[in-house]
From TrEMBL:
A Gene Ontology molecular function term of the record: glycosyltransferase activity
Protein family according to the UniProt entry: Belongs to the queuine tRNA-ribosyltransferase family.
Name of this protein: Queuine tRNA-ribosyltransferase
Domain of life where this protein originates: Bacteria
Annotated organism of origin: Helicobacter baculiformis
Reactions catalysed according to its record: 7-aminomethyl-7-carbaguanine + guanosine(34) in tRNA = 7-aminomethyl-7-carbaguanosine(34) in tRNA + guanine
Domain (tRNA-guanine(15) transglycosylase-like): residue spans on this chain: 12-364
Amino acid sequence: MDFSLDAQDGYARALTLCLAHGRVQTPIFMPVGTQGGVKSLDSQDLYGLKAPIILANTYHLYLRPSHTRIAKLGGLHGFSGFKGNFLTDSGGFQAFSLRHNTKEHDQGIVFKSHIDGSPHLFTPTKVLDIQYALNSDICMVLDDLVGLPASYERLLQAVQKTTAWAQKSLEHHRQHARPNHHIFAIVQGGTHLALRTQSALELSALDFDGFAIGGLAVGESALEMYETIAHTAPLLPTHKPRYLMGVGTPQDLLEAIDRGVDMFDCVMPTRNARNGTLFSMQGKIAIKNMRYKDSDMPLDSTCTCHTCAHYSRAYLHHLFKARELSYFRLASLHNLHFYLELMRGAREAILTQNYASYKACMLERLG
């Protein structure tokens, strides 16, 4: 992977990744497009947001419409119309979140489709082949994700299995991937710091393009998560990007950047938008609240997004109450703009060696 470390302020980093479908400058938040598209938005909306990379879901796309069909239709970029970069996860999180449909297997993960109940086996090599068919710019290895709290024995098993699967994945990748396909390993170990050390060092000894910190935001406290990130990130190679999977609130992102994380994804901005919670520099806005029914103000007077430039709180309140479909688009545009601008501000602060002040200011404003 063509990679440069542009600046560092404490542990906070500003990177540039040159991928096949454009540059990605970090810190970066990746909107989640589970089914190959961000809910309620299209590719033009994503261009308007200046989102250089989004996340798609290997498990869901494998089941519907299938990776083979997507490959025939031009891969994710041709199929979706989004010509930016795609990172695809491997299905490990779905094995965790849909665990009533899954069971352990020596070779991988056995699961029943949540759509029709059909049986399937995900192995380290199979999930990569699916991602190659999708033409993913960044492919995630299959990992063993454990919810917290968990026993030491179960966490150790997850670390051992994840390392073994990562080794198989890297061998397969070297033989079958095209140059535009990059591969990230995933560090496991729960909040047990010795196991995080073991996982990070074992995976760092392998020549992956980047490294993710997985297995967090699955039941532990915010303090435990921050402590685990602070312990784990410095163990990972300085010349490779670091990705914190599935996290989280704006405050979480600011804290994780301060601890050396570069990349993020989470459903929170779009899910909260659909459920009526909107982010602003004055704190969260519950748009269903009757106090907004007569407000001609934008959601955030400091925001430059399409929604704030054209629509009032009263109008968004009305759309939400009426369950108009346009509400979901306008709210999602605003929340994603908020997250992406937060990351752009963080990058600028790192470049000017001012991240501590930026973080403190943002945390105070967010409340």
